[in-house]
Amino acid sequence: MRATRHLRALIVIAVAITCLSQIGCVTRRLRLRSDPPGATAYVDDYEVGTTPCDVSYTYYGTRKVVLIKDGFETRTVMQEFPSPWYQYFPVDFVAENVVPWDIRDVRTVEYKLTPQVLVPTEQILRNGRNLRQSLQGGP
Q1: The pLDDT of residue 27
Q2: What is the phi-psi region of residue 78: left when phi exceeds 0, alpha when psi lies from -120 to 50, beta otherwise?
Q3: Domain carrying residue 38
Q4: For residue 112, what are the contacts with CB-CB under 8 A and spacing of at least 6?
Q5: Which range among 23-32, 83-92, 106-115 has the greatest average pLDDT?
Q6: N or C: which end of the chain has fewer CB within 10 A?
Q7: How many alpha carbons lie under 13 Å from residue 68 in its C-beta half-sphere?
Q8: Cα–Cα distance for residue pair 39/71, rounded to 1 Å
Q9: Which CATH number characterizes residue 61's domain?
Q10: What is the mean pLDDT of the chain?
């Protein structure tokens, strides 16, 4: 009789542990795309890969995104990632710890890179001469 109660208690504990281990979480991913692809991507001054690429993150807010590609202007953007409704107190505790499935928050941002403008060498030399003359002739 006593062994049966202990067995039932162990079964209940095992089921509870199994259920609690299946509790979900919030998975946050940032997908970076560029047009044209192949730019080196930095998020908050950390290199995260070559576009297109994905990176996980923990906190919402403003992120510094920098894209660098040869032959194109470097693109720097302060990108805002607002918190979704389920990340405000007290709902965030339930979303992170009680909901029995994974919540996936995937944010995709795409940036168009502009071709780099090359200034002709003669124009650079002319601008340098003009600057030198203005400094020498000044007070």
Answers
A1: 87
A2: beta
A3: 2-118
A4: 34, 35
A5: 106-115
A6: C
A7: 9
A8: 10
A9: 2.60.40
A10: 85
